[in-house]
UniProtKB/TrEMBL annotation:
InterPro entries with a match to the protein in the record: Dabb, Dimeric_a/b-barrel
Protein's name according to its UniProt entry: Stress protein
Domain Stress-response A/B barrel: 36-131
One Pfam entry name: Dabb
Transmembrane segments: none
Amino acid sequence: MSTRREFISNTGKAMFAGGLVTLAENGDPRMIENKFIHHVYFWLKNADSKEDRAKLLEGLHKLSAVKTIKNFHIGQPADTNRDVIERGYVFSWFCLFENGTDQASYQVDPIHLKFVEDYSHLWSKVIVYDSVDAK
């Protein structure tokens, strides 16, 4: 029977050897590489409506069922206040895809199309930032 320290050490080695942990070129394991990032910001028509806010949040949770989404995050403005910070949006929708092909598939996925059909009447503005690795 191994100790907890030995187990953790051996598990880490196995993950690294198995390719489950990939280090960035600069050796920084925090850097996300070779992924497609899709970040969407939503402004509501009725910004003060708790009902509209709840409906859009419900829709974003439904949208997370798209199979090509590797990871996602639903956010709202943080309680920070500096001149460079945009706080007018209601929700941000961050998705991580393996590649551009998976993101393109997401755009025509029936779940995504249904989301736009069912919830687009709630928003007044949407801004999308798509990004890939800087070369």
